[in-house]
Write a structure and sequence with these properties.
Layout (H helix, E strand, L loop, with lengths): L2 E5 L3 H10 L4 E5 L20 E2 L18 H6 L2 H10 L4 E3 L4 E4 L4 H14 L3 E3 L7 E4 L2 E4 L5 E3 L1 E4 L14 H8 L4 E7 L3 E3 L4 H4 L3 E11 L2 E12 L3 E3 L1 H10 L6 E5 L6 H14 L17 H8 L13 H12 L1 E3 L1 E4 L7 E6 L17 E3 L13 H17 L3
Helix pairs in contact: 1-4, 1-11, 8-10
């Protein structure tokens, strides 16, 4: 029987503790007053547990170090996670995009299920227990010098550096560096984008559906996301913005463009505008585009196209129309930056996967030391994929730390 310590009571830590506790003594050290604090706010308080896609499709949702997760995903898949949580009484449902949520829409029910699992395995959960230091003395890991508690194996599941109010303050990175383990530079991921355009005040609060946000570098489209987004006082947010942010957080010298009518090519859009102009031929152009675009967007697009909004429709030239079509299909957005990392859903960067065995989550340098979850340099897009990473890597770490 081994004594195993887990630092961090998030999903990866709880899952690691559950599987490590089979035949072993396991202690979770959690700095917060309750377990799974970050889970309470995920999925807008509903907790997107995983996704029902084929596990082979998960790798397409991981923009960084996806190959590292091969063993984790296939050893403990989304179906395995659903089956396990179901066996402890958690009922789930599927929504748009294959997202899996608790049937109750309450993240608290997910956390209660994890707690039930830990009690079932007699895991010693210590709340309000911040770990200040970790070291290894010969065979044993020692947690906090003043406690001098010894453990055979140590699992670090402290999360990233975003949402610091939930306790994600980067402790795991410090512990890794204390063991001379490399930590890759940290970046915000799944985060709103700041813009410096003058029209932001006019567009604040406008929600757009079925639009496309693209990233161009040297005139070439390197990323394109289709779906929903929202204009805010600082810039843009929403699903396609969050996905895009994870692609540009390490990039320099690129341009952002918004296609307001991605379903229509230039020629088809031009024909559509001609029909509207015929319908409103005696009106000013600013009053002839309301069926095509949201009202607040019309003056902004006309300004971008350099068209006088008081011009009557019958005065619009073909050249003016071409500029209008181009502005609708490629509305330029002036990138200012990403919001502070504390606003990020997840942290990009972290403990280098080159130093971790992907089949065990054990450090290649320090025997008996394991890492799992967001503390690792892995990340995914929204849709339940980051939760699956947490649970899959937690499973791998727990099972291997618990082996005799």
């Amino acid at each position: 029987m081994k004594n195993i310590a887990v630092i961090g009571g998030g999903p990866s830590g709880m899952m690691a503790a559950y599987f490590a506790a089979e035949g072993n003594n396991v202690t979770i050290f959690e700095k917060n007053e309750k377990l799974g604090k970050k889970l309470f706010i995920t999925g807008k308080g509903r907790c997107n547990i995983t996704n029902e896609k084929e596990i082979s499709e998960f790798f397409e949702e991981v923009p960084r170090n996806e190959k590292f997760l091969y063993s984790a995903f296939y050893s403990f898949s989304n179906l395995d996670l659903i089956k396990l949580l179901n066996s402890y009484g958690l009922k789930m449902k599927s929504e748009r995009g294959g997202r899996i949520f608790p049937s109750s829409d309450k993240s608290s029910d997910v956390i209660a299920t994890y707690i039930k699992m830990l009690k079932d395995r007699n895991v010693d959960v210590r709340l309000n227990s911040e770990v200040k230091s970790v070291k290894k003395n010969l065979e044993y890991f020692i947690i906090n010098d003043n406690f001098e508690e010894k453990f055979d194996s140590l699992i670090i599941a402290t999360g990233g550096y975003s949402y610091r109010a939930t306790g994600s303050t980067g402790d795991g990175y410090k512990f890794a560096r204390d063991f001379d383990i490399n930590v890759e530079k940290l970046y915000p991921a799944l985060i709103p984008i700041e813009l410096s355009d003058e029209f932001l005040d006019d567009l604040q609060g406008i929600s757009l559906k079925n639009v496309s946000l693209s990233v161009k570098q040297n005139g070439k489209v390197i990323s394109e996301e289709f779906g929903e987004m929202l204009f805010s006082h600082f810039g843009i947010t929403g699903p396609i913005v969050l996905r895009t942010s994870s692609k540009i957080n390490r990039m320099n010298k690129f341009k952002l463009y918004l296609d307001l009518k991605p379903a229509l090519d230039f020629e088809t859009l031009d024909s559509r505008i001609l029909r509207d102009f015929e319908k409103f031929k005696n009106k000013e152009i600013k009053n002839a585009l309301f069926e095509l675009l949201p009202k607040k967007l019309v003056p902004v697009i006309l300004k971008i196209a350099d068209i006088d909004e008081s011009m009557t429709v019958n005065q619009v030239t073909r050249a003016d129309r071409n500029k209008l079509v181009h502005s609708i299909k490629e509305m330029p957005l002036t990138y200012k930056g990403l919001l502070d990392i504390n606003a990020a859903i997840i942290t990009s960067g972290g403990v280098s996967v080159k130093e971790i065995d992907p089949s065990t989550m054990e450090s290649k340098k320090v025997k008996g030391l394991y890492f799992c979850g967001e503390v690792l340099d892995v990340e995914a897009f929204t849709g339940g994929f980051n939760m699956q990473i947490a649970n899959s890597t937690g499973y791998i770490a727990g099972v291997n730390a618990g082996k005799k």
